[in-house]
Design goal:
Shape: rod-shaped
Order of helices and strands: HHH
Distance between the termini: 93 Å
Structural class: mainly alpha
Strand content: under 5%
Number of domains: 2
Length: 92
């Protein structure tokens, strides 16, 4: 591994710094190594593709659930009409 000789100044809030420090400590890494590894593994285009796929699946699933609910409500409506008709025949 090459020796790091360049700096990249990054401003963060004190809360962000504390969170990064804790995550690095939990991973048994220096903050610099933790941030280098995080930056090296970040793939925004891959993340976007995964997120878009999840959104597409959510939309399909939501449409399927909505259709199933509509079918169930239609079934209940038909059943309610049939029960009402049966009750009306019994009262006559």
């Amino acid at each position: 591994m090459a020796t790091a000789t360049e700096r990249i100044p990054v401003l963060v809030t004190s809360q962000e710094k504390a969170k990064i420090a804790k995550m690095a400590q939990d991973a048994h890494l220096s903050m610099g190594e933790f941030l280098r590894r995080a930056a090296a593994s970040f793939r925004p285009s891959e993340d976007d593709k995964i997120l878009e796929g999840m959104i597409d699946q959510m939309l399909k699933t939501t449409a399927q659930a909505s259709a199933a609910i509509d079918d169930a409500l239609a079934f209940v409506e038909v059943s309610n009409r049939r029960i009402s008709a049966m009750e009306a025949r019994q009262t006559h």
